[in-house]
Task: inverse folding
């Protein structure tokens, strides 16, 4: 019996039907509509939102850097993340699941099915019925057929076009589906905020409130620009315990974590609730592959970090190698906000400046500096980087 009241909507279907493109388009539109939700990509294929938003050549590099394999631990981790969700979820499973990978699907509540053939549709209909998931839509994914959509007793049926990762487009079928998903995921923003912040471990910094202080036209779910960082840091008292609530970019969390140092810092996570940023100690790490690579064209180093088995549960302390160097550093990796925050706090004593890589824009945002070499909030335009 399900006790979690938030929906977990599975994007189901055979490989290469456009599930990841659809999940990206849905989450972007839901964010634009200020619908609080979380997109969970369960497949270890190295994909993220940047695989559509970024330069295609850079995306291929980043995808290979972050690609991995399913494991029993990863499957259990993703299943628990869905079951303990604290926001409505969109769940993108990537390719065709096998064996115990279906445990991830069984933790969901609803489904949107994409298919190309009647055989694919029949297979997935049987699986969704077996798992007792509620239908939202069953749509044929096509690049050439005429779009149509109809409401039936079993959800939406029709044809959807435009799910091409190089040139994604949205039409009438997508808009109808978006309205259905929005209705299922719509919760009162302030009620969610009150529920989530009730157990905050430190003095709250709520991004919605922060935006009202520093932005000309603040929104309930603000969109942050790197150029706003100096004003943001002026509006928040430094070196004090802080609990950050919001869905802002990783560079914002990293900058505020450094701003709070040496005091405690915590972030709200849709999977784990409140997470204290771990204290980094020097030593050999079991969970991370950490590499320092000098940039060949610009005067800084890359700090490339990869979660070794694709799972990194929150830690109270985190062992990391010595990262000391004379040049500034750009931190890069498919990492959670709390880990970017922890890395930035460690690096502030070891590097003259710290920036966070933004793959979608192929730039990096400076979140900390000592001296005059860089400015906080500065965007560094990056050359395409290959593995060395």
Result:
């Amino acid at each position: 019996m399900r006790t979690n009241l938030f929906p977990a909507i599975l994007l189901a279907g055979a490989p290469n039907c456009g599930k990841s493109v659809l999940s990206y388009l849905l989450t972007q539109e839901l964010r634009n509509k200020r619908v609080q939700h979380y997109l969970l990509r369960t497949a270890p294929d190295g994909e993220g939102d940047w695989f559509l938003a970024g330069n295609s050549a850079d995306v291929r590099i980043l995808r290979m850097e972050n690609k991995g394999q399913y494991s029993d631990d990863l499957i259990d981790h993703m299943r628990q993340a869905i079951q303990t969700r604290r926001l409505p979820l969109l769940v993108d499973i990537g390719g065709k699941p096998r064996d115990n990978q279906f445990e991830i699907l069984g933790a969901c509540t609803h489904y949107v099915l994409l298919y190309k053939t009647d055989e694919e549709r029949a297979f997935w209909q049987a699986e969704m019925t077996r798992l007792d998931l509620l239908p939202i839509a069953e749509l044929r994914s096509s690049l050439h057929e005429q779009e149509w959509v109809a409401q039936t007793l079993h959800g939406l049926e029709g044809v959807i076009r435009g799910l091409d990762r190089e040139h994604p487009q949205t039409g009438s079928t997508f808009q109808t589906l978006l309205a259905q998903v929005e209705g299922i995921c719509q919760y009162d923003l302030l009620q969610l905020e009150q529920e989530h912040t009730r157990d905050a471990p430190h003095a709250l910094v709520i991004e919605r409130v922060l935006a009202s202080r520093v932005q000309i036209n603040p929104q309930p779910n603000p969109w942050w620009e790197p150029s706003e960082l100096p004003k943001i840091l002026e509006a928040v008292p430094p070196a004090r315990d802080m609990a950050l609530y919001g869905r802002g970019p990783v560079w914002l969390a990293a900058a505020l974590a450094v701003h709070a140092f040496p005091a405690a810092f915590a972030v709200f996570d849709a999977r784990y609730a409140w997470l204290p940023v771990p204290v980094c100690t020097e030593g050999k790490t079991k969970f991370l592959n950490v590499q320092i690579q000098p940039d060949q064209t610009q005067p800084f180093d890359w700090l490339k970090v990869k979660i070794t088995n694709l799972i990194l549960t929150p830690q109270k302390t985190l062992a990391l190698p010595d990262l000391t160097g004379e040049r500034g550093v750009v931190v890069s990796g498919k990492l959670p906000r709390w880990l970017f925050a922890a890395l930035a706090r460690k690096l502030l004593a070891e590097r003259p400046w710290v920036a966070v890589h933004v793959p979608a824009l192929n730039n990096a945002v400076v979140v900390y500096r000592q001296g005059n070499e860089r400015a906080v909030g500065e965007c560094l335009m990056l050359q395409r980087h290959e593995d060395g």
